[in-house]
Design a protein that fits this description.
Chain lengths: ~120, ~230
Amino acid sequence: MSAPVSANLAQIGKSVVIKGELSGSEDLYVDGQVEGSIALKDHSLTVGPNGKIKASVEAKGIVVQGKLEGNLQASDRVDLRKSAVVAGDIVTQRISIEEGAYLKGKVDIQGKSEKAAGK
Amino acid sequence: MKLFRGSSGGTQTETPQSAQKLTRRSSGLGELSRLWDSETPLCVLDLGSTSPANIRFFTERSHRIYSEDLLVASTDPALVSKDEEGKVVLDSRKFLADNLQYPAAHFDVVLCWNLPDYLDESLVRPVMGRLWSVLKPQGMLLAFFHTKDAGPDSPCFRFHIVGKDMLEMQRIVMKREARRGPTGAVHTAITEGFRLQRVFNNRHIETLFRDFASIKFFLARDNVREVLVVR
């Protein structure tokens, strides 16, 4: 599957390896490797089929097609596609998991009121 | 207890390519279902293959679900070691160091499904011991056991909750792939699919769960006993 094309989309290709803190104010597509943390408060992260992430992720939306090890916190939604392999806890408002996706971890659905109360 | 561990791999038959789905009524699940209406969010541990249906079922009811596929985890080659007699076993300490890492008395419900029947012998008791400790007092565990009529090729299933006492069973399909061995010879390796390791009788099941406060058996038509235990 090719990377989605968008005017405000940053892309990390499959040969790129990043270690450290990654933050931004635009959507991000990662098909390479990232270790550390990813923070995209009001934007979305897409992990491509070749992506390998070892990081805690905070974003508005998170789509996973590759491998992700770390906790996921999404203010809107998490999509685990059929090739996704995720080891970590997920806190989100909405989640969609395709048949074939692998998850080792907790799924905690938090409503807007719970989030506002900081539960 | 009838063990199948020594069975020859040569007798294995390849399953159909498409994963069959069957629906069955589950008395054990029906018994558990009165908990689902609890206003206090429950902590549920699902030890089967990741099931979108189960995650949806519990999150829609505001419960927290933890998913951990222990059968897949048990296939980690790093677990293989040898005991004092030189017999190949799986390292249960390493397995428990990498899996089932939860605080004590954390879960209200553990869904074991058919895990004990397919899990390697060296892991069964350590895993049950860990499950006892992560269950809350009065917490419940549901497990399925084959009866003595089941053979070693009894298919392993994924379980999806589709109603208060209804399950959809999806057969885990065996995949074979050609691999080149260390000598250069090409052989066929089974990359997915699990074999029934043994058949427990009722006494063995009672022994397996002897630390639990109570045990209830439900007989089903499909050579399966459902067991609901309370810590």
